[in-house]
């Protein structure tokens, strides 16, 4: 059931299945997965400029770096199943595709640059609560070309309002506070 659910999910549908949300973290939800995401794992989020960086404080992420946690799942990568050099390469490739508008649903974004990886600990994310309710879940959503892929979702049910969404993004800003800059980008 969980594998079929995650093939075409969005956060609104996820919240409709609130009873299953936490249970599904304990099983594999992708045919390509190397296993469930463990609390002991370290993960990284690709950071792109200018969309993810605070213009006044270039070493600080903005709320847009975490926007996808609300609508489709925030893409992250598990370091246990990937090399950082491969993740940096993927980030550079994504930025290049964005600049050229290679994604059919996007216009070219000539200003797009890959910055690096924001790094976090899974346990710290899963241990984030508000009003005695857990805020985030992480699922192994690996694909055939990226076995390290996972998604982070905001499951705090009030996360649909702008104020709460901003508050949840700020929590992730603090957790993902370490940025490992791409060594090939000057």
Overview of this protein structure:
The structure is a single chain. The chain has about 190 residues and is an alpha+beta fold. It has seven helices and eight strands, in the order αααβαβαβαββββαβ. It has one domain (about 1-180). It has helices at about 1-5, 10-15, 20, 70, 85-100, 120-125, 160-175; strands at about 40-50, 75-80, 115-120, 130, 135, 135-140, 150-155, 180. It has a six-stranded antiparallel β-sheet. A two-stranded antiparallel sheet has the order 4-5. The termini are far apart.
Summarize the structure.
With 186 residues, this protein is an alpha+beta fold. It contains seven helices and eight strands; from the N terminus they run αααβαβαβαββββαβ.
Task: Give the topology.
Layout: H1 2-7, H2 11-16, H3 18-21, E1 42-49, H4 68-71, E2 74-78, H5 84-100, E3 113-121, H6 122-126, E4 129-130, E5 133-134, E6 136-140, E7 149-154, H7 162-175, E8 178-181
